[in-house]
Structure formats: structure tokens, C-alpha cells
Amino acid sequence: MSDSHKEALALGREQGRLVRRYVDALEANRPKRGRKRTLETVSRRLKEVERQLETAQGLDRVHLIQQRMDLRGEMTTKSTVVDMSELEAGFVNAAAGYGRRKGITYAAWREAGVPSAVLSRAGIGRSS
User: What is the rounded distance in angstroms from the CA atom of residue 100 to the CA atom of residue 28?
Assistant: First the structure.
């Protein structure tokens, strides 16, 4: 395998990583339907579940344990701040080349949730 081939493979992996991180972050931060749960409401529910666990037995206890695990995970997720500007910058640098190689159209990027302004900055137009 030539050095240029190795460099092309490394570039493809890096572009794929940058694009994946941005698209995954978009999906994770997409607005959800219904009432928004804040860190405070999740914390309050966690305290209630822990109080109920003191007296729970059998299958109810198992359900409460799972609910406690889910709530703790949700608290961790809500307290983690994602720097979308950094991820967006990486996407802008990598998306055009990645999309060209993989045959990803403007419409596919838009349907995946990528804003048109970001695609424009990446050099991906409607005719792409």
C-alpha cells in the first residue's frame, strides 16, 4: 500500500469521524415533543424513586432500580455541555469531501437535520 493510499484512508477516517460526531450531536440535541424535563425535575423524581425503594419489594423494586439507573443517566446527559460550534466547524471542514465520496446529497443532509446555513458553509449546495 502506497503512502498516498494510506493518507487517503486516514483522511477518510478523520472526515467520517468529524461528520459522525456532528450528526450524532444534532440528533442528541434535537428538541423533543412534550414537556421539557429539567435537571431539577429529574433530580426531584430521582429522590422520589429512592424514597420508594426503601419499602419496595419484589418486582416493584426491580422497576424502581431500573428507573433510578435511567434517571441517573439522564442527569449525566443533561449536565454534559456539548460544544456544537466546535463540532460544526469540524463538520464544515469535512462534509463536502465525505459527502462526495459517499454520494450523500444536500436533501439527505437536510433530512438528517443539518441546517442549510451549515451546508452552505461546508460548500454543499442544493445541486450537490
Answer: 25
